[in-house]
Amino acid sequence: MSTEPRPEPPLPPRPEPPTASRPPGHRSAVRVREAFRGLGAALTTPTSPGAPLLADASSRWVRLLPYVVALAFVTSLLPTTVLVLTDDYGLDSALAGAFGTAQTAPLLLAVTRPLQAWWIVFAADVLGALVLLGADGPHARLWPWPPPLVVGYCALMVALGLRESRRALFGVWLATGAAGYLLEVFRPAGYTGVHTLLFVLSGVLLLLTSAVRARGDAQRRLVEQETISEAERSRRTLLEERARIARELHDVVAHHMSVITVQADSAPYRIPELPEAAREEFGSIAASARESLTEMRRLLSVLRSDGGGEGGGAELAPQPGLDRIQQLVEATVRAGVPAELRLAADLGDVPQAVDLSAYRIVQEALANVVRHAPGAATRVSVRTDEGWLTVLVVNGPSLEEGSSVERGAPGTGHGLVGMRERVRLTGGSLDTGPLPDGGFRVAARLPLGTEDPE
Q1: Is residue 209 assigned to a domain?
Q2: pLDDT given for residue 417 in this prediction
Q3: 263, 285, 314: which is the final residue of a domain?
Q4: Residue-level pLDDT at 214
Q5: Backbone phi, then psi, for 447, in 5-degree steps?
Q6: Interatomic CA distance for residues 334 and 325, integer angstroms
Q7: List of the chain residues with pLDDT < 70
Q8: Same domain membership, residue 309 and residue 403
Q9: Are residue 150 and residue 274 in the same domain, yes or no?
Q10: Given 176, 193, 210, which residue is the final one in a domain?
Q11: What tens digit of pLDDT does each residue of 107-128 get?
């Protein structure tokens, strides 16, 4: 038998202490590490790269303004920077030209990619300050940033503030201050430090431009919301008009379905010699008609469920038609609008849907006259012409029946929405618009035929 000792099983790994049990210093270090990681990501991830500044402006000249300003800064700062580096700081002309170009030319890139331009300018500025440590100019006074560099850096801050995120701007500001105060340690004797000046100026410019950008973004979102709200209001108005029209047309369709039901039920009694198959067919027709009436009542209950319709008594009242237009005109006259009615003596057989639509169109047109043109002379004309019912409501100077009217811009009122829906429902056409002399016209043509509109 083997006497070798058995190996002890390995101990399980010690679990990490929960976050709540970790010391406060550890949690603070984690937060600082995450904050710096976020700053690094913000400084390396530009916002909308390639999109020019002020690209959303409506004016073409405003969109071109950043290019003009950037070109003006480069053409003025480039020779000035080279001259200051050579004459004041005693830098070699070749090095002065290279650093002057690296510190000013990226301002052109800042129009479309300000964060990338900042990286180039920032690296050139720091490297240029280190090179100036070995220079001995006769007129050098400022350290570590020459005056043209301060001007160009401030212009770059404006471009950054108009484009990048707040975290990226905060990182740029911290990097500017850190570089300036670190270089201050190596300041040569006799120089005046301007690191604090640039640190403060860059912070103020970044704060102001980011506030301007935030205000512009808020205004743009407000305009978008207003546009969406207006579209939603128009859509809601249209749906309300369609629901109201559907409620009114219910009585028209229900009347026809009731007639079908009565005729189908009474056919076996009115026609004694009717075959048995025909009796069953009429019974099926009557049952289908009654079922359709039931479904229509359910549909109407849905349309009336919002509680915004008329009262119950008004819903049960007979739907109006052309025979009540005279009462509309008389009520308009009593409201202070001189109105005239020309109603054809024999309109013939007008379908109920067309009859109701014509009445509602005249009602809406006269209501608009009372609201928007009180006291204006108004004429209402209703006549038939080759299978069409023509309804004309004109306010303003009187017009002859055959006179031509220039069509104006279509109205957008709540009443006009209902008119268009009624005309579309019947397969007719509607022409609305202002007149050259200041009046307004509503002209509707409704088909008198019974065929379905295309």
Answers
A1: no
A2: 78
A3: 314
A4: 92
A5: -75, 140
A6: 14
A7: 1-26, 28, 32, 35, 247, 250-252, 255, 299-318, 397-415, 450-454
A8: no
A9: no
A10: 193
A11: 999 999 999 999 999 999 999 9
Looking at the structure, tell me whether residues 288 and 355 fall in a common domain. Answer: no
Each residue's pLDDT tens digit, 47-75: 888 889 988 888 999 999 999 999 999 99
> Is 2 a member of any domain?
no
Domain-located, residue 229: no
